[in-house]
Every structure is written in structure tokens, then in C-alpha cells.
Design a protein that fits this description.
Layout (H helix, E strand, L loop, with lengths): L5 E10 L7 E10 L2 E4 L3 H8 L4 E11 L3 E10 L1
Antiparallel strand pairs: 1-4, 2-3, 2-5, 4-5
């Protein structure tokens, strides 16, 4: 019942080909019944992965019955 009960998506946001991708950082916000906690920002993801040069940025979303949700920004780089 994927798509009706739950969704899980991953979408590219940006790519820069001239930098390696040896490190990964994520920032996350989680929500439940309309209340959200966390910070999904590019700066936070870079800080969490100790990244100074970005190679690739991706967005990941998970949603269960519009009741619980998680939103991630994933950064890869050096």
C-alpha cells in the first residue's frame, strides 16, 4: 500500500561535479500531528558532516498517513 499509507521519496536538489563526495551530512525535521521538531537546513547538514565543499545535495521525505513525517537534507562533499 505504498503511496496510500506511506510515502518515501528521495530527490536530487543540486550537483557540483568538481568536488569529491567522501563525507555525508544530514539535517532532519520530524513532525507528528502538525507539530514539527528539528532543523532541515543546508548549513546544519554541512555542520553535521563536517563538510566545507559541497558535491551533491539531496532531499529525502517520509510520510505515514499524514500523521507522522520526516524530512531530511543530505549533503555530500569534502
Amino acid at each position: 500500500m505504498e503511496g496510500v499509507l506511506l510515502t518515501n521519496t528521495s530527490s536530487p536538489v543540486a550537483a557540483i561535479s568538481n568536488v569529491g563526495a567522501s563525507k555525508t551530512g544530514k539535517s532532519c525535521a520530524k513532525g507528528f500531528l502538525g507539530f514539527a521538531l528539528g532543523k532541515t537546513s543546508l548549513d546544519e547538514a554541512m555542520k553535521n558532516g563536517n563538510i566545507t565543499k559541497i558535491s551533491y545535495v539531496e532531499r529525502e521525505d517520509f510520510n505515514f498517513l499524514l500523521i507522522a513525517a520526516s524530512h531530511y537534507i543530505v549533503v555530500k562533499g569534502e
